[in-house]
Amino acid sequence: MDDHTASARASLGPERIASAAHPRNLGTPLHPEWFEGVGINLSAAERRAATLGARRSVKKDHQAAWLVKALTCIDLTTLAGDDTPGRVHRLCAKARRPLREDLVAALGLEDRPPTVGAVCVYPTMVRPAVAALRGSGIPVASVATGFPAGLTPLSQRLAEIRYAVDEGAEEIDIVITRAHALLGEWSALYDEVAAMRETCGGAHLKAILGTGDLRTLRNVYKASMVAMQAGADFIKTSTGKEEVNATLPVSLTMVRALRDYCEHTGHRVGFKPAGGLKTAKDALNWLVLMKEELGRPWLEPDLFRIGASSLLADIERQIEHWATGRYSSASHHAMA
């Protein structure tokens, strides 16, 4: 093993892929006093978010290590109207082997090739995904509850969760009723998420807040806190279908809510930005956010995921540049 490979491998560390186990979020009774008086300074949030990419520069072997870390936290996603079992099978093959074999060798990871964090599909595509991923250890996540609008009757949304779980989904990405947050109906939002959490059974629940629809960072903070109190295992920014999806100021607000909830309860809850993360630089910015705001435990896929499809191709392209010193055309890499 040459010095270049050894240095990158050392940067990855022994926990480069393995997740540290932690108890699931048990939720709490609704505590409005935890969020009603919270004020958020938009300008300060934007200034803090702007420092993340500018103040830290991750280069060379360290950048390769961080990009592998980002890869292991991707929820590789297809949520298209023309999805087919064949497309899902292809996506799952990429999830199993997200990097070409020569790049895995250059990284010195032949003994433990990296895989993505999960594959995310519609409920009717769960069964093909489960079959394609059998034996890989990669979980299948399913959107549910009338994704992306979440405006079907609650009974139908709960039935959709049960269907996806019965098909084999280990993670359920639900969407909240944004109107509850916009109108300050926190008890209604709490009851809705709690019912969804109960219906998930053993499957982890990721609560999609649809932050682009919530208008203010205060609403984002409050909805984050209510979803966690109701038992969400993850809070997620967006469906990817809103006009505005994941942004760093919104993500900063949500991870501050995660930190506050952990201080109140001792429970760690995960975070998933989704929508608009397309480049390796985006992935690095969000990793820096998690590291600086929440610390090392939130750099593992049991507490951090990135909802993405095309992001993986750019990460592979950047790792190829690290390994060879040359940039390839984006078309050279199989699109996830």
Order of helices and strands: HHHEHHEHEHEHHEHEHEHEH
Strand content: 5-15%
Number-wise, the strands total 8
Q: What value does the Rg take, in angstroms?
A: 19 Å
Tell me the number of structural domains. Answer: 1
Low-confidence stretches: 5-20
Distance between the termini: 30 Å
CATH topology name, in short, is TIM Barrel
Pairing-aware structural class of the strands and helices? alpha/beta
* Discrete helix count: 13
CATH architecture: Alpha-Beta Barrel
Percentage of helical residues? 40-55%
Per CATH, the superfamily is Aldolase class I
Largest beta sheet: strand ordering: 7-6-5-4-3-2-1-8
Query: Average pLDDT value?
Result: 91
* CATH class label: Alpha Beta
Largest sheet features: 8 strands, parallel
Using the alpha-carbon principal axes, give the shape: globular
Catalytic activity: 2-deoxy-D-ribose 5-phosphate = D-glyceraldehyde 3-phosphate + acetaldehyde
InterPro entries: Aldolase_TIM, DeoC, DeoC/FbaB/LacD_aldolase
Pfam families: DeoC
GO molecular function, one term: deoxyribose-phosphate aldolase activity
